[in-house]
Write a structure and sequence with these properties.
Layout (H helix, E strand, L loop, with lengths): L7 E4 L5 E5 L2 H8 L8 H9 L4 H8 L4 H8 L3 H9 L5 H11 L9
Antiparallel strand pairs: 1-2
Helix pairs in contact: 2-3, 4-5
């Protein structure tokens, strides 16, 4: 096995691995990789308030159904139907994510 030799593992007081020290160039390379996150507030709304991810994101971003519907070029009532159902079609999820300014994967909670 070709284990990297330029990584240092730092252990906590109990001897368990706690941190990994890597070369700075590798850190820079890793930090440039795009990773999308989901805010805790959005996850809480989905889990604790039984909201769809689409609604949770919209509320988190402070948008109204009318604003999102306008961005999508549909009526507010048509958008409300999409927001209320789970799951939505992939193509619909992609359009809504774009309207919200997020990536579709962030709607997959």
């Amino acid at each position: 096995m070709n284990a990297p030799i330029n990584i240092q593992i730092l252990k906590d007081a109990k001897g368990k691995p706690a941190f990994a020290v890597i070369p700075y160039a590798e850190y820079l390379s890793l930090s440039k990789q795009r990773t999308e996150t989901i805010p805790n507030a959005v996850v809480n709304k989905v889990i604790n308030k039984d909201m769809t991810p689409i609604r949770a994101w919209r509320e988190h971003l402070g948008l109204t159904q009318t604003e999102v519907a306008r961005r999508l070029g549909i009526s507010q009532s048509a958008y409300a139907q999409q927001e209320a159902k789970e799951p939505v079609r992939k193509s619909t999820r992609e359009k809504i994510a774009k309207a919200l300014g997020i990536v579709p994967e962030q709607l997959a909670i």
